[in-house]
Design goal:
This protein is an alpha/beta fold. The protein contains 18 helices and 14 strands. Helices cover 46% and strands 12% of the residues. Helix 16 crosses helix 17. Keywords: ATP-binding, DNA-binding, Nucleotide-binding, Phosphoprotein, Transcription, Transcription regulation. This is Sigma-54-dependent Fis family transcriptional regulator. It comes from Marinifilum caeruleilacunae.
């Protein structure tokens, strides 16, 4: 088998060092030895070792193990992922156990059991590999989170209502207080939740978004708390739930008002106890998450109607943030429109566009029942369908529908009308399938299936 791993042995017994080196060289790619622990840290600065074998006592007549423990602390201070295996004299088992409590991974005795020594060192090497892999994954996760967050839209608004929201975010983001964000659909609740996460002490950890309204009752516990292999028919392997996945970071529970009453108890228990039990499991798993919940429902009214647990509302509602509708912050429409105009011209590789006064007036006068989400959709459609850099009022397609001119269809056959509607959607969007799917209220894969079905 190919030799792997770099090993450093620290012991004041030259004969023992020679014996170790002779025995272990065929199994490791590098075996270095030093007989003076004072050289240890300088050696670690020269090379990176996977496993360090360290004697517990160096001075003659001393067998307290304090020297070994001291050098262990120095090694771990230099490299917290170091894997240290102690070399102990016969009968020092109690001392070795103490060393493992201080951070050593294992120990071997000087009684020279070759099989045990080799298996211990190889296990320590595997542990070192696992630690380094985790370290690498954490670095990648941190960089990935930074990249994701850099590309997320940020909260925009100079209106008085939005400035009030910003002030509250500034005050609470740095705490671990649970937050409830309310507001109509499309007002930007997820964007505000991400803004809170980015300004929190957890910003280097994950932000996990869960759409509670999209999870079926039968899968609710599995999605949130995970499951063990064999817990139910399709549970072919262990699966981590959203709570555990978000541990250390932020868990965004969107559409929390849609959770059925009998499942709210399970949600409350997890938040309250800060632990979850996977479906099919029996051992609780501790979780450390900051909860941000969002809804367009009036939860206080739902409590009064016995549709929402009052104790759950208090748990998620330490701080409340109410987002205004777009009509309540009309002075922000121009800034938001230009933000999305810039975003989509870059996304679709188009020249920079600008809104003339008439186009901006048209945007500001619209009622925006779909709020910011509707505005975003309108600006994306405008960028796709126009080539002019100076956008006129007629270039802004607001409230344009795909309906036929006739009030009555030629046929009431659903399949016939679906085919016609799809054809018109594709024609209306200039062949842009993503936009056509949005207009039809379906996803792109479903649109392609229907195009194939109707041979369009």
């Amino acid at each position: 088998m190919p030799k792997k791993g770099k090993l450093l042995i620290v012991d004041d017994n030259e004969e023992l060092l020679f014996a170790f080196q002779l025995f272990l060289k065929p199994h490791f790619e590098l075996v270095d030895t030093i007989n003076n622990p004072n050289l240890l840290l300088s050696k670690l600065r020269e090379k990176e070792y996977d496993v360090i074998m360290l004697d517990m006592n160096f001075r003659a007549g001393i067998n307290s193990g304090n020297e070994g423990l001291y050098w262990l602390s120095q090694i771990l201070e230099y490299d917290k992922n170091a894997c240290v295996v102690f070399i102990t004299a016969y009968g020092d088992i109690e001392l070795a156990v103490k060393a493992m409590k201080e951070g050593a991974v294992d120990f071997v005795q000087k009684s020279w059991d070759e099989k045990h020594i080799l298996s211990t060192l190889l296990s320590a090497y595997k542990l070192r590999c696992s630690k380094m892999e985790i370290k690498s994954l954490k670095k990648k996760q941190k960089r990935l989170n930074q990249e994701i967050n850099r590309n997320k839209s940020f909260v925009i608004g100079k209106s008085a209502r939005m400035q009030e929201v910003f002030r509250t975010v500034d005050k609470v983001a740095g705490t671990d207080a649970n937050i409830l964000i309310t507001g109509e659909n499309g007002t930007g609740k997820e964007v505000v939740a991400r803004e809170v996460h980015l300004r929190s002490k957890r910003n280097e950890q994950v932000f996990v978004h869960v759409d509670l309204g999209a999870i079926s009752e039968s899968l609710f516990e599995s999605e949130l708390f995970g499951h063990k292999k064999g817990a139910f028919t399709d549970a072919k392997e262990d699966r981590m739930g959203r709570f555990e996945l978000a541990s250390g970071g932020t868990l965004f529970l969107d559409e929390i008002g849609n959770v059925p009453l009998h499942l709210q108890t399970k949600l409350l228990t997890a938040i309250q106890r800060k632990e979850i039990i996977p479906v099919g499991g029996s051992t609780p798993i501790e979780i450390d998450v900051r909860i941000i919940a969002a809804t367009n429902c009036n939860l206080h009214q739902m409590v009064a109607d016995s549709l929402f647990r009052e104790d759950l509302l208090y748990r998620i509602n330490t701080i409340s943030l109410e987002l205004p509708s777009l009509m309540e912050r009309q002075e922000d429409i121009g800034e938001l429109s230009n933000f999305y105009l810039d975003k989509f011209t870059k996304q679709y590789d188009k020249p920079a566009m600008e809104l003339n006064k008439a186009a901006l007036t048209k945007l500001e006068k619209h009622k925006w029942p779909g709020n910011i989400r509707e505005l975003q959709h309108v600006m994306e459609k405008t960028v796709i369908l126009n080539d002019s850099v100076n956008l006129q009022a007629e270039d802004i397609l607001i409230g344009e529908s795909l309906k036929k001119k006739e009030l009555m269809p030629d046929s009431f056959n659903l399949l016939d009308n679906e085919k016609v509607l799809i054809e018109k959607a594709i024609q209306f969007t200039g062949g842009n399938m993503s936009l056509a799917a949005k207009e039809l209220g379906i996803n792109r894969s479903t649109l392609y299936d229907k195009i194939k079905k109707y041979d369009l």
